[in-house]
Specification:
There is one protein chain. This protein is of the alpha+beta class. Helix content is 24%, strand content 34%. The chain contains eight helices and 20 strands. The strands form four sheets. A six-stranded mixed β-sheet has the order 6-7-8-3-9-10, with helices on both faces. The chain has a five-stranded mixed β-barrel with strand order 11-12-13-20-14. Strands 15-19-16-17-18 form a five-stranded antiparallel β-sheet, with no helix packed on it. Strand 7, helix 5 and strand 8 form a beta-alpha-beta unit. The longest helix has 18 residues. The chain is globular. The two termini are 35 Å apart.
Length: 357
């Protein structure tokens, strides 16, 4: 078995009477890009601080490549860090900023020059090596900070919402840059963000934290299409949710359910859901199909709202019993409020989860 680049084993943290992190386990494999995602105050930054060594857990262990570093200070952990505020030294050139970690480690001048040139080239800033932070853009400064965090070839890269203060277009470009560089360097990375789209776009795996606990853990595709709970489904994107009960015993994971209106629905039972407990059906708007003519497994309704989103449009359809379903469809479809239509989805698109949370 491959030794994880980082392992948190049962770590906890409390600030006075406030519990920031309950017993928490997390592993990051060599070369893996893992994103911590969650609402404000969920515990993301606490996990990052414990991984960095700026916080000591009240209980549990922190392992770096199999070595216990729980009480080891940050400067001995060989971790690179990039923050929202990139804090470059204003009196140093771009090259000198990147060289700083190597000079602290007393690397030979030749090695420093080679590594600085390599990592500035990697982030596309070699031509700006002699400029000062005041002479580069915000996006370029963040790339300098990334090069500085990578130049000493850390065992782990930690990133705390590094793109939160950057405008949308530049943020998208830097997401691509960071992912490209991480794939090329294969530095295991723990990335913190509150942006769901950013997490899904960049990550090999997403860990969703809620109230100091792990609420979900999986690939972006798994968590989006088969969320483990109602809360995770609604946090990670738009979702249609309907409380249901079993209509027949499950056949494997195939599940027939019935809602309060007596409507019979089908879906896939999530492994974490208890068939005898309270259940909810979850289906993404992208899987909902809007048709003008009746079709099997589609229900009549009336369009109550339409929202233009560029390539797509969001359509809200109210069924006869009052259930409003949100569907996502091509924007060129001529659908208007008041239109009588039918809406449904393939049975395989719906997931049945526990109704709590």
């Amino acid at each position: 078995m491959t030794t994880p680049a980082l392992a948190l084993e049962g770590v906890t943290k409390q600030y006075g009477a406030s519990v920031a992190l309950k017993p928490f386990d997390l592993t990051i494999a060599p070369g893996e890009f893992v994103t911590l995602l969650g609402p404000s105050g969920s515990g993301k930054t606490t996990v990052l601080g414990i991984a960095a060594g700026t916080l000591v857990p009240d209980a549990g262990r922190v392992l770096s490549h199999g070595k216990d570093v729980t009480r080891q200070p940050t400067h001995l952990r060989n971790v690179g860090m990039v923050f929202q505020r990139y804090t470059l030294f204003p009196n140093m050139s771009v090259a000198d900023n990147v060289a700083f970690p190597l000079k602290v480690r007393k690397e030979p001048a030749r090695v420093i020059a080679e590594k600085v040139a390599h990592y500035l080239d990697l982030v596309g800033l070699l031509p700006l090596a002699d400029r000062y932070p005041s002479q580069v853009s915000g996006g370029q400064a963040q790339r300098v900070a990334l090069a500085r965090a990578l130049v000493f070839e850390p065992a782990l890269l930690l990133m705390d919402e590094p793109l939160a203060a950057i405008d949308r277009r530049l943020r998208q470009m830097l997401q691509e840059e960071i992912r490209r560089i991480q794939r090329r360097t294969r530095v295991p990375t723990l990335y913190v963000t509150h942006d769901q789209d950013e997490a899904m776009h960049m990550s090999d795996r997403i860990v969703i934290i809620r109230d100091g606990e792990m609420a979900a853990n999986g690939t972006p595709q798994d968590l989006y299409w088969t969320p483990p709970s109602v809360w995770a489904a609604e946090f990670l994107g738009d979702a249609n949710v309907r409380h249901v009960e079993l209509a027949a015993p499950p056949e494997g994971r195939a599940c027939a359910v019935r809602d309060a209106a007596g409507r019979r629905l089908s879906g896939t039972l999530h492994p974490s859901a208890c068939p005898k407990g309270r259940l909810a059906l979850v289906v993404r708007p992208e899987d909902c199909v809007v048709r003008r003519q009746p079709e099997p497994d589609a229900w009549p309704g009336r369009v109550v709202d339409v929202s233009f989103r560029g390539a797509t449009q969001e359509v809200w359809v109210e069924l006869e019993d009052g259930w409003t379903i949100r569907a996502s469809m091509r924007a060129r479809e001529d659908i208007h409020p008041g239109s009588a239509i039918h809406v449904g989805w393939p049975a395989a698109a719906a997931v049945i989860v526990g109704a709590q949370g």
